[in-house]
Amino acid sequence: MAEVKLFGCGYSPFSRRVEMALKLKGVEYEYIEEDLSNKSPLLLKYNPIHKKVPVLLHNDKPIAESSIIIEYIDETWEGPSILPKDPYERAMARFWVKFIDEKCGVAMWKAFASPGEEGEKAKEEAAQLLKFLEEEIKGKKFFGGENIGLVDIAANFIGYWFGIIQQIAGLELLTKEKYPNLCKWVDGYINHSLVKDNLPPKDKMTEVLKPLAQPGYSGYKPKV
């Protein structure tokens, strides 16, 4: 019986975050794929409050919410650091993750999923929020510096999922003309071996996302 188990969904950017962190640390684990339309009794047992993936099970002790799980992984296992060692830089990394989860990611989803005036307003908001990330990544290879760190892992929705969404919806929000630094990061990020090996196939993701990328859909939940 594996010491570490991960309950996840291969199409979820939040689940993929945790997989990246585990593989960055070289942690062996058992992966359990969840059908989110028919959640298993074990998932509901280990995450009775949110009833969502991902859930990490370590020595039969469950931990929920991707950002919390990643910090736990970083503190529990040896290997490359995911969070910065410097207290200020560590605090700022947490700040940017919160910004991505609670502001930028939500606005980017609503930019095409919300109809009419609400959608237009969301596009404007997302465009403004992306400017902060454009400035933050300026002059850096990754948000973590020379190596992938917490913010890079948390930004996987922006780096991969949103590119597919833009193609499906015909949306031109995150472009090289508007955000050259951020798009340069995207190119380096999705071609990094750690990231590339932990992304769902584009054709499969297109199948999954296409019905979600419809006006009026509001299923994006940042806190999982």
UniProtKB/TrEMBL annotation:
EC number annotated for this UniProt entry: 2.5.1.18
Top-level taxon of origin: Eukaryota
Gene3D superfamilies attached to this UniProt entry: 1.20.1050.10, Glutaredoxin
Keywords, in A-Z order: Transferase
UniProt-recorded Gene Ontology molecular function terms: glutathione transferase activity
Catalysed reactions listed for this entry: RX + glutathione = an S-substituted glutathione + a halide anion + H(+)
Domain GST N-terminal, chain residue ranges per copy: 2-81
Residue ranges of every copy of the GST C-terminal domain listed in the record: 86-208
Family membership: Belongs to the GST superfamily. HSP26 family.
Entries under PANTHER family matching the protein: GLUTATHIONE S-TRANSFERASE U8, GLUTATHIONE S-TRANSFERASE, GST, SUPERFAMILY, GST DOMAIN CONTAINING
Protein name (record): Probable glutathione S-transferase
